[in-house]
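User: Just a sanity check before I run the rest of the batch. Below are the structure tokens for the first item. I only need the designed sequence back.
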């Protein structure tokens, strides 16, 4: 059985969006509900790992290889096309209007490109910072948990009762950690008066 990282991310995003968009409660209540829903998916994931007896090999590493070259990036870059509105408008005024219109088109293209670059830069910085701040504690918390669950995989292989109880115990421990983190964040936010 092979794990599906993007499927997991998709489920987490779907649950987050449904919870945050459908419910109209306080942020803390929404986060508590979100943790409860995610714990159901965590239980199903742990149960499947245990029931199928998934094991890690000895050479497993948490390395994401990055293989990219500049040619790939250059092929995927977009260009800004203003449609030549100023050039066409200037062409009606004669040769001087054509040159002025062309220069205005070039200037507009440069300004739009700079605006697009700044927006992308800001959004990527916010995205990366959010992922690092939220993902790092969860990575360290659940990395050991998944290893613990997988270590029990041999004894639970094709035994649904044993897999159920080990998965339930691991899910409850992880959910308690998440609720403790949320309670701590709520307490710290209360100290600041928010």
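Assistant: Here's the designed sequence for the first item:
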């Amino acid at each position: 059985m092979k794990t599906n990282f993007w499927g997991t991310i998709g489920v987490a995003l779907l649950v987050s969006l449904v919870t945050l968009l459908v419910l109209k409660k306080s942020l803390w209540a929404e986060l508590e509900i979100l943790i409860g829903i995610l714990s159901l998916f965590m239980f199903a994931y742990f149960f499947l790992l245990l029931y199928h007896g998934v094991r890690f090999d000895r050479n497993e590493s948490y390395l994401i290889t990055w293989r990219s070259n500049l040619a790939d990036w250059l092929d995927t870059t977009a260009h800004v096309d203003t449609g030549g509105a100023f050039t066409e408008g200037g062409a009606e005024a004669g040769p001087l209007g054509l040159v002025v219109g062309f220069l205005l088109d070039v200037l507009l293209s440069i300004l739009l490109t700079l605006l697009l670059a700044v927006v992308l830069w800001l959004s990527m910085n916010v995205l990366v910072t959010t992922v690092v701040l939220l993902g790092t504690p969860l990575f360290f918390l659940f990395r050991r948990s998944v290893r613990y669950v997988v270590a029990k995989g041999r004894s639970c292989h094709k035994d649904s009762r044993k897999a159920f109880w080990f998965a339930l115990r691991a899910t409850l421990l992880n959910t308690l950690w998440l609720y403790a983190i949320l309670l701590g964040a709520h307490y710290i936010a209360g100290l600041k008066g928010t």
